[in-house]
Amino acid sequence: MSMVQSAFPPRRNSVGVQVGSIRIGGGAPIVVQSMTNTDTEDEIATTVQVAQLARAGSELVRITVNTAEAARAVPGIRARLDDMGCQVPLIGDFHFNGHKLVTEYPGCARALAKYRINPGNVGHGKKRDEQFSILIEAACKYEKPVRIGVNWGSLDPELLARMMDENARSGDPRDASAVMYEALITSALQSAERAEEIGLGRDRIILSCKMSGVRDLITVYRALAARCDYALHLGLTEAGMGSKGIVASTAALSVLLLEGIGDTIRISLTPEPGGDRAREVVVAQEILQTTGLRAFVPLVAACPGCGRTTSTYFQELAESIQGYVREQMLVWREEYEGVENMTLAVMGCVVNGPGESKHANIGISLPGSGERPVAPVFVDGQKAVTLKGDNIAGEFRQIVDEYVQMKYPKKAVDAH
């Protein structure tokens, strides 16, 4: 009998880049990053949000450095984070005046773990080359890596105009969108080549070519990945709000990640008014975990509900358990090895409940409409106990806690 084989390609080989304590590319796990939306001039507010993003699981955090006051604030933000025991590397997002800021505020240039430069808006004509060089020279001086981030909304207009003219004069002109794709890739690769000529090593360069459209992004990154071995940062430039942003990011990044493309990702969600900025971190983690590329937190499988599950109890329990394990992971990840790989199932009736529950490490099958008011719990495929009464949720959480303590080895304590 023939067996079905996995059709997913291997991870693309890329040059590894060290960003503070975090490694990007070179076979390292795909890194989750995010960006603050506070005014960087406000040290306290920015420090608080960076720490919140890091606590949620952001392994790198980018901050805007757009004014002299913001540049002056960066060393203080770094110091405050260090005092809190938050070692997350900070990335400085530079545009337009970045060459002045890294020159005039060396404390800022030193405190950042990486610089992000957009070659489309560092200047025009001769100034562009000069100002780009100043930024790269600062990166060389302070031994910092750089992300050369090309963006379709701020693509170098001179480069695009030249390529459009060349295309128009050719005997077989291509579609305008194809020329724009090529301009994005050319800008990234030529900028990286120039950075190397100035003295920045390949092991300090990360590239990105961000678009807003899902198909556009996939097309550009497939071509970029085939033409270089630089580490690649993935993300839509403006994913959008709510479900639209989540769906668009998932659709685009999942395709690329499953093709082995991408070394670090950011989900650019627009928060609802008063919304949690850390939502984009959770979405990034869930994309990587559901595609089988990394594990961050035990996942809870839950049935969608139907006419057999007219009670909302299983929905409430699933939500409660998912929130509980995500919060507990802040403790578990410090104490236990491998707990992020645990799987849980909260099912709502007898049709798929017992079977699905047996496939999880811990599963509970709640009674559906008209069924006996009991809830069997399965542990590693075997029925362990039947819960009933008013404290099923509390008793199930206790079972999860006991399973973690029993199943996963304690991490070694560093004596130093």
From TrEMBL:
Chain segments annotated as transmembrane: none
Residues bound to [4Fe-4S] cluster: 303, 306, 349, 356
GO biological process annotation, one example: isopentenyl diphosphate biosynthetic process, methylerythritol 4-phosphate pathway
Enzyme class: oxidoreductase
Keyword hit for rRNA processing: no
EC nos: 1.17.7.3
Cofactor(s) listed: [4Fe-4S] cluster
Annotated ranges, domain IspG C-terminal: 300-401
Gene3D superfamilies assigned to the protein according to its UniProt record, in alphabetical order: Dihydropteroate synthase-like, Sulfite Reductase Hemoprotein, domain 1
Pfam family, one: GcpE_C
Details of cofactor binding: Binds 1 [4Fe-4S] cluster.
Gene Ontology molecular function, alphabetical: 4 iron, 4 sulfur cluster binding; 4-hydroxy-3-methylbut-2-en-1-yl diphosphate synthase activity (ferredoxin); 4-hydroxy-3-methylbut-2-enyl-diphosphate synthase activity (flavodoxin); iron ion binding
Reaction(s) the record says it catalyses: (2E)-4-hydroxy-3-methylbut-2-enyl diphosphate + oxidized [flavodoxin] + H2O + 2 H(+) = 2-C-methyl-D-erythritol 2,4-cyclic diphosphate + reduced [flavodoxin]
Positions of the IspG TIM-barrel domain: 17-284
Key words of the record: 4Fe-4S, Iron, Iron-sulfur, Isoprene biosynthesis, Metal-binding, Oxidoreductase
Pathway(s) annotated for this protein in UniProt: Isoprenoid biosynthesis; isopentenyl diphosphate biosynthesis via DXP pathway; isopentenyl diphosphate from 1-deoxy-D-xylulose 5-phosphate: step 5/6
Role description: Converts 2C-methyl-D-erythritol 2,4-cyclodiphosphate (ME-2,4cPP) into 1-hydroxy-2-methyl-2-(E)-butenyl 4-diphosphate.
Family: Belongs to the IspG family.
HAMAP family: IspG
UniProt-recorded name of the protein: 4-hydroxy-3-methylbut-2-en-1-yl diphosphate synthase (flavodoxin)
Gene from which this protein is expressed: ispG
